[in-house]
Amino acid sequence: MTQNSQTGAAFIAGGSITGAGVSATVGGMGLAGGFGAVGLGTIPVVGIGAVGGAAAYGAFSAIAQGDAAAFGAMGIGAVGGAGFSSVVGGMGLVAPKIGLVVGIGTVPMVGVGAVVGLAAYGIAKLLDESESKETSAQVFERMEEKVLAMDDYAAAVMELEAFLSGEDLNPKFAALEIEDELEQLKAELKEKNQTNPEPSPAKIETKIIPPTTATTEAWKCIRTLKGHSAAVNAIAISPDSNLLATGSNDKQVHLWDLSSGKWLYTFSGQAEAVLSVAISPDGQKIVSGSVDRKISSWQIDTRKFLRTFFYLNSPYSHNGFIHSVAFSSDGKYIVSGSNDKTIRIWGCYTGTIKCTLNGHLDAVLAVIFSPDSKTIVSGSADKTIRIWDVNTRKQRSILSGHLAAVNTVVISSDGQTLISGSTDTTIKIWNLNTGELLHTLTRHSTAVLSISLSINSNTLASSSSDGVINIWHLPTGEIIQTFYGRSPVAFSPDGKSLISGGNNATIQIWQRTQSFDKFTLENIDSELWWEVLGVDRDAHPNEVKLAYRRLARFYHPDLNASENAKASMQSINQAYQKFLEQWNSHIHSRFY
């Protein structure tokens, strides 16, 4: 392969990685217009990224070589884009998870066509320079095969990184040569650290931290719930820890028995993705907030629809997506936060609007009542946290400290401490009464999307957009455990369970153990290897292989400093071994 063709491959792979990152961060996206609506999953967005990378390489080549053919390709693409716009009509790009709605007119479509034309030129140049016999379509098809239809993009990034480095991953792990692979990975890591030493991680900013010792507890996934057909956005648990409610992009709210994992009922009626759910303090009602701008409520025991919360004479509850809903501890009020920048307080029993709180300059992404129901805390895309007095309906204070959107907030059971998670990758701990910043946790490397605090306020769970869940011991600011999962996260009120999102629209239930030695597959049914690897039981072998590689790199003790990494790696190895045994048995039975 020539130097130019390597450069072209780097442009395309880089664009693909960027597209995968956008898909993982933004979540579900779609195109809407007069033709209806079409969802965009990970693969199309990765393809868009690849097109962008190819277009960038085309521009790079055209400038370097002064090739006028590039401008001809752009012109043809622009004409095609204009023609497409005239046939299809008005369109828009919708990303409900982040509240994005953007119109796409004729002029932007002309630009898109020009980019596609330039991408075609870039691919042609790449194929010509590499002397490949593949067509442009075959190149994109081969790239698409590398990105399986999975919710996460880590496996795709790993494959692309391996491609750029020249590493041949296909023969790896074929015979489960774990020790050799880990030793090689260890040597590569040491060599990398010697040649390019990484800067020391930022010290945790601390003012008040008691000198206590972190607990040795560990969390183990005991069950995976399947029932939704799209990503899970919201989790709520009943006060008695018996019931679990989940809201999803599939427009449904599911009710589950938390102890058995049994599906109990599906509450339907939302016209769009459900972004938030909450269960009343008496365990009798469920409310949900949706992209359709409505708050809906149901009676749990009778399974009956109660009402939609309407704002005055409007057919909607808000004028934008409803990102968060929460009950007051006395059950009298419901608070909601919306993409329309407002917070609204509703009567729980009547569904009537009590007041609207204005002040945020961007979408309100999180709202919560204090335990005494006298205070509301809100987090916003405007990078601020605002504290409101429920009785006076006035803003009490503004907390500024995050450098990006505040996605999630929780309050300790004693009402003294506020914790926030942000797109700036940090978790901040505040004194709720004074607004003083007490502590900053900085171990996540991507946006923190969800946090949950245990009933004793000593343990914090946090999840980020890269699929990492951290369990923190708050008195010391130390990480107890790190594992792979999905947002959102929620501790059960009794402290015995942790609920998180999972791969492929699933929900994972974790329980606490006191010994990391118990975190092995020997304590899980031997038939549940797919639960450990986070895939469907009937997943394609290539998908299982990629899931195993992703987890192996994530939990490798040289890359994962958490105390349970070694035990987790052993469980993953055993799970993959059981998969290979079953797969080999299946293949053998087909031919003999």
UniProtKB/TrEMBL annotation:
It holds the Pfam family DnaJ. InterPro entries: DnaJ_domain, J_dom_sf, WD40/YVTN_repeat-like_dom_sf, WD40_PAC1, WD40_repeat_CS, WD40_repeat_dom_sf, WD40_rpt. Residues 528-592 form the J domain. Keywords: Membrane, Repeat, Transmembrane, Transmembrane helix, WD repeat. WD repeats lie at residues 225-266, 267-308, 315-346, 357-398, 399-440, 441-482, 489-511. It comes from the Bacteria. SMART domains: DnaJ, WD40. The chain crosses the membrane at residues 34-57, 69-94, 100-124. This is J domain-containing protein. It comes from Tolypothrix tenuis PCC 7101. The lineage of its organism: Bacteria, Bacillati, Cyanobacteriota, Cyanophyceae, Nostocales.
